[in-house]
Design brief:
540 residues; alpha/beta; FAD/NAD(P)-binding domain; Polyamine Oxidase, Chain A, domain 2; seven-stranded mixed beta sheet; 35% helix; 17% strand
Length: 540
């Protein structure tokens, strides 16, 4: 049997692509090396009675793409709970200052900022949301299309520096100086944006730490929109999938099956080769799948390796490999089962602290020092920690009478200096991460009953994320939009390999749970195949 499409990997983007292809009538099979579906968007039992995420936990972007509604994933069991408050920044340890609580309501958020930082910053934040909310919505629009110059121009058409969105329908550049002013703001650093808008370092550190979840430090050019994305959280906050992050990929797999697609797990793809008008996909177990189209949802460097094993020109592949920058690594995570939620100083109730992202950084110097250390292969002088305790929203993921937390920390290099390995230092570094949490929430360390540590080396070996980079390749300006991962690979196609399409975090729009890459890859494949495919489909 010749399939219309073989999809390599079952990450959420690969499954989104498979769903759109199957919905269009294509015969589709997903091939996954793991016995667990979903890649980094999956949930397993790590501790007795606990369903623990293997990768992502909060779903932010996919709730803004329309994919959940378009594929009717609620019909297949997916349900989201709003994270509201969506972020919480506690006061520094040993301080009686009030926390900063970011709620969906801009008014309530500004009230919290005024109490913690003063009226001037509260008013600035209100204006910040007014300006950067529309801008971030345009960024999301750009994320949802093939990264071409016309598509990007359409996405940002009408933006003005003053209001964030214009009513004239004209491009901002039609006003002298407007286009250059706006582009300068988009290309600037997150730190520069924060220094322009706000005074209080605690507020700036919280927003910088939120923005840094994309990977780059906010000192890099082009990171201003990553900070500005916070404004969009007041339109629709992060969501927590009931049952764990893997509920998304379970719903996608159920949708795929309902449309006639198949999933084959536990058999890693070994090579892909072009054979005349078809592709041959060979697995480690000896299976050979023949398909008209292949969608590769694995890491781009893994895809290049599969091509080389299938006989593709190794000189060209090596030239691409040398130009794709994975980076030093991003971070590590400690998954915990506890007897209680963290109890932050000066907070009476855990309701306003535990539903969203707990941003445990009060000063951007912690972020700067951590990133600088990672570049040298060193551990951060002080771990920058993001805590999430979603059992407070969804008790079903934890054992009765217990809670569950994930502590994500940046930056931790994949390759350590001095010949050290993560097997040598991983547990000690996990202790330091828990110690940071304990300083902000005294007594927390005593509540831990189980823990699972995922170092950069563990992230690579379990999830196939090379170099431990959860974004696949660095999300720096030169590897975004129509440069991701390289200009010649940026439109979800591979030169010299007709019928091979790319999706996943290695491609536009990058890492994070959005599904946008999967939908676009499917749209490109469908458009390319349409004339011949329609005839074949009608002849069945």
């Amino acid at each position: 049997m010749i399939l219309d499409a073989a999809v390599i990997g079952s990450g959420h983007n690969a499954l989104v692509a498979a769903c759109y292809l199957a919905r269009s009538g294509w015969s589709v099979e997903v091939l996954e090396r793991d016995t667990v579906l979903g890649g980094a968007v999956s949930t397993v039992e790590r501790f007795p009675g606990h369903q623990v995420d293997r990768g992502s936990s909060a779903h932010i972007m996919i709730r803004h793409t329309g994919i959940v509604e378009d594929l009717e994933l609620a019909r297949f069991g997916l349900r989201y709970l709003d994270c509201d408050p969506w972020a919480f920044a506690p006061a520094p340890p040993d301080s009686d200052a009030p926390p900063i609580v970011f709620r969906r309501s801009v008014r309530d958020t500004c009230a919290s900022i005024e109490a913690a930082c003063g009226a001037r910053d509260a008013d600035a934040y209100r204006r910040f949301v007014q300006v950067w909310g529309p801008r971030s919505a345009r960024v999301m629009r750009a994320f949802g299309a093939t990264p071409t110059a016309p598509n990007l121009a359409r996405a940002f058409w009408g933006l003005t520096p003053e209001r964030g969105s214009g009513s004239s329908g004209r491009f901002a550049g039609s006003t002298p100086g407007a286009g250059s002013a706006l582009s300068r703001e988009f290309l600037g650093s997150g730190d520069a944006l924060l220094d322009e808008w706000f005074d209080d370092e605690r507020l700036k550190a919280a927003l910088a730490w939120f923005g840094a979840q994309s990977g780059p430090p906010m000192s890099e050019p082009g990171t201003a929109p990553m900070v500005g994305f916070a404004a969009l959280m007041h339109t629709l906050p992060p969501g927590r999938a009931v049952g764990g992050s893997g509920a998304l990929t379970k719903a996608l797999a159920a949708r795929l099956t309902a449309d006639g697609g198949r999933v084959h797990t536990g058999d890693e793809v070994a090579a892909i080769a072009r054979r005349g008008e078809h592709w041959s996909v060979r697995t480690v177990g000896g299976r050979e799948v023949t398909a008209r189209t292949v969608v590769a949802g694995c890491h781009i460097l893994t895809t290049l390796d599969l091509l080389e094993r299938g006989g593709h020109d190794s000189t060209e592949l090596d030239r691409w490999r040398r130009r794709i920058r994975v980076g030093p690594g991003i971070g590590m995570v400690v998954r915990l089962a506890t007897t209680d939620l963290p109890r932050y100083g000066g907070v009476d109730s855990s309701a306003e602290t535990s539903s969203g992202l707990q941003l445990l950084v009060n000063d951007r110097r912690v972020l700067h020092a951590g990133h600088g250390a990672a570049l040298a292969g060193e551990l951060p002088p002080e771990p920058a920690v993001l805590a999430m305790s979603f059992s407070a929203l969804d008790p079903s993921i934890a054992a009765p009478g217990q809670h569950q937390l994930s502590l994500w920390s940046q930056w931790h290099p994949y390759a350590l200096s001095g010949g050290r390995t993560w097997a040598d230092v991983g547990e000690r570094e996990a202790d330091r991460i828990i110690d940071v949490m304990d300083r902000f929430a005294p007594g927390f360390a005593d509540s831990v009953v189980h823990r699972h540590v995922q170092t950069p080396a563990d992230i690579e070996s379990e999830l196939g994320m090379l170099g431990g980079n959860v974004m696949h390749v660095e999300m720096s300006l030169d590897q975004m939009f129509f440069w991701r991962p390289l200009p010649e690979l940026a439109r979800h196609r591979v030169p010299g390999a007709p019928g091979l399409y790319l999706t996943g975090a290695s491609t536009h729009p990058g890492g994070g749970v959005s599904g946008a890459s999967g939908r676009t890859a499917a749209q490109v494949a469908l458009a390319d195949a349409k004339p011949g495919f329609v005839r074949r489909f009608l002849q069945r």
